[in-house]
Each structure stands twice: as C-alpha cells, then as structure tokens.
Amino acid sequence: MSIVKDMSIAKSGADKINWVKNFMPVLNAINDEYSQSKPFAGLNVTISLHLEAKTAYMAQVFHHAGANVSICGSNPLSTQDDVCAALAESGVNVFATHACSEEEYFNYVERAVDNPPHIIIDDGGDLVHLLHTKRRDLIKNLYGGSEETTTGVNRLKKLDADGELAFPMIAANDAYMKYLFDNRYGTGQSTFDGIMRTTNLVIAGKTVVIAGYGWCGRGAAMRARGLGANVIVTEVDPIKSIEAVFDGFRVMPMTEAAPLGDIFLTLTGCNDVINKKHFELMKSGAMLANAGHFDVEINIPDLAAISKSRRTVKPNIEEFMVGDKKIYLLAEGRLVNLASGDGHPAEVMDLSFAVQFFSAMHILKNHESMENHVYLLPEDINVKIANIKLKALGVSIDTLTEEQRKYLGL
Ligand code: ADE
Q1: Residue 378 to residue 361: CA distance in whole angstroms
Q2: Model pTM greater than 0.90?
C-alpha cells in the first residue's frame, strides 16, 4: 500500500534508480550478499529520507534483504514523484508526494509507521519525534535506529542528555565514512549544483558568503573557491574560525559580510543566521540559499516583512523588493541541493547508505544489550566500508609489517 502522485511516471523513476546503481559499488556488494541471507526477514523497517534515486535504491536493498520497508520523505521539496512511483512498484510502501503541504507531510510520516517499525532510519528527526510523542505506543516494538544528519543527531543528543531518549539510536552522521565524504564533498558539490542549475549564472568572480564552517561549510567553501569565487566565511566558533583563516578564507561577522556578498549560503544548523539587519545591508541582486536541514537559517518572515513585494521570477527563485533593492531567495530557503537538485552525488551516498545499512545490522544484532542512548558506529564497520570502496575504486594501499605493528604496539 502506497500514496504517491502518479504511478504512470514510474519508468522515469526506474531509469534514475538504475543510473545511480552503476556508481554505488558498496551498496551493490551489500545487496549481493544480504539478498541471499535476508537478515531482515519478518521485520518492518521504516525510513524517513530525501526521496530521490539513491535513497530509493537503499530502500530496495533493505527490501531485498528481507525487510518490509515503509518510507516517507524528510522534506516536501526533495521528494521526486517518478522515483516514488518506481519504488512503490518494486514492493516498498511509499508515502510521499513532491511539494505536499505540511499537514500532508506529517500525515505521510504517520502512515510510514502503520506497519509498526522494528528499525528506523531517520533524517532530521521527524520520525523520532513522532515516536516520542503521538506514537509512543510503538516504542515497545522498536529495536532502535539510526540518524542521517547533523541536525537530527543534535536533536537526539538533547533527548539523550535530558534522559528522554526512548530507544537506542546510532548517529550515522557522526561515522567517519559518512561525514568526511557526505557532509564535505557531497554538500560541497550538490549545493553548487543546485545553485547553478537554478540560477544558470557564473560563480567565478562572485563573492560567496558561507555561513558555518562545520564539515558541510568546509566542503562548500572549498568548492566555491574551486569555482573561482571570492569566499568569505562567517562562524560563531573560535576554533573553526581559525581553521577557516588557515584554510585561506576571509572570516568576519555577517554584518560585515552582508554588504559584500553576491551569494549567501547557510550551513549552520542554527536559526536566524541571516535576518533583517543583514538584508538591509545587502546589495541589490544578492542571492540567498540554504543547505542546512531546516528552512530556518534565513529568516524569511523577516525578509517578507521588510519587502514591499514578493514574486516568483523563475522556478525555485523568488524576488523580494526591499526598497529599490532586489533580493533573491532560492528554493524557499529549503535545502537547495535537494529542492533544486538531486542531492549528493551517487558515489558519495554509496558510503552514507552503507553506513545506514550497517547501522541497521548493528541494531539488529545488538539491540538487546543496547541502552537508550546515542551510539557511534563501531570503528571496524567504517574500515569495512572503506575497504569495499577502495576495492571498487581499484585503489590498493600499503599494509603494516609485523615489525611495524610491534613498533606501534598493535
Ligand atoms: N540524498 C538522500 N539523502 C540525502 C541527504 N541527506 N543529503 C543529500 N543528498 C541526499
């Protein structure tokens, strides 16, 4: 049973899924192995993730591994209807439509737990929130789960610190094989892909202001520089700020960056990063985009309040008139890489989704001894994923000799 927009467009979604499979060797290896042994047979796995082709493939891998999979989106604009149709056709229960209302979105999250989940995979924390509020009755059935993003992990850590986390969760985001590649290289590339597709403008020579110098901000700053931009970084953390300085970027407060920037990109995980006092200082033509999980980083109500008009000038671009100035907002201030693009590259999501699969395996095997806390993925699983990827890339590396192991005390 699924709710999708249109089953007649499944062919285009299946083509997209087949394309990404060519570039996801780790997930392919997992699929080959576990479609035989079917470790999730008889279990319900519920997923809330950006519903595009790579995610669909991961959902199919869980399905082939025996799970009864239900999936909903994790943002109304990142859902691709053709992919949903193809996924539903392949036997997964899909509850998602592109650009649905907030009410529909949360209704879909609820439908995704109609089959009481044993294991969940969340992105941003909406599924975990549902299970801690309206559907606490489902906790007794649940082994645990894992979380994809920095924002979701922050929400989990708060629940854990307050003693309220009701089941074990693995912080998939905090695994080396996730954040070193997904947050940095994935966000770096997909964000500029989204901005360039939407605007069809040049990045070279523009001043790009990157708000936040976590792993995502580092990746975005690196790619902006590679595209020829003059990059300014804004931060609140003194250590990350020094890192940005040593990486060769100008670092300053947003009030100083506001009059200089041509493109502003937020990747902080925090709200109200660009607000009224900044909009008033910006030049005409400034463009605003967000790559953080929630649409709260650019204060859109503030922008609307000081604007005399607001209109859509191109798909995914709104023009706000602030006095005589034009300020452009991309993708409603939602994740620009997914709302205006296809998300991270397939080779990158290959690693992230391998982390998710092995997190679910870890929960499956160990849930009885796990407590209601946030866990890291064990180190040997990161190494296992890295080794499969290296093999697929055709890269061989050195190994320690016995004498070296002795020298290192291993
Ligand atoms: N594709 C699926 N999930 C994604 C995510 N969290 N970020 C970017 N691309 C994605």
Answers
A1: 12
A2: yes
Beta partners for 66? none
Please give the CATH superfamily to which domain 7-178+344-393 belongs.
Adenosylhomocysteinase-like (3.40.50.1480)
What is the amino acid identity at position 41?
Answer: A
Q: Which amino acid is at 108?
A: Y
Q: Residue 77 in contact with residue 341, Cβ under 8 Å?
A: no
Strand partners for 286: 327
Q: 19 is written with which tokens?
A: 């394309």
Report the mean per-residue pLDDT for the chain: 97
Over range 174-199, report the average pLDDT. 97
The closest alpha carbon to 261, from 217, 336, 183, 207, belongs to 207
Q: Which amino acid is at 81?
A: D
- Per-residue burial over 392-407, b = 16 or more CB atoms within 10 Å of its CB, e = otherwise: beeeeeeeeeeeeeee
Report whether residue 123 contacts ligand 1, using a CB cutoff of 6 Å: yes
Q: Note whether 7-178+344-393 and 184-339 share their fold.
A: yes
SS (H, E, C) 42-67: CCEEEEECCCCHHHHHHHHHHHHCCC
- Choose one of 78, 181, 335 to mutate for the ligand 1 pocket test, by most ligand atoms within 8 angstroms of C-beta: 78
Give the pLDDT mean for 338-344.
94
Would you say the CB of residue 152 lies under 6 angstroms from ligand 1? no
Enter the CATH code of domain 184-339.
3.40.50.720
Residue 58, pLDDT score = 98
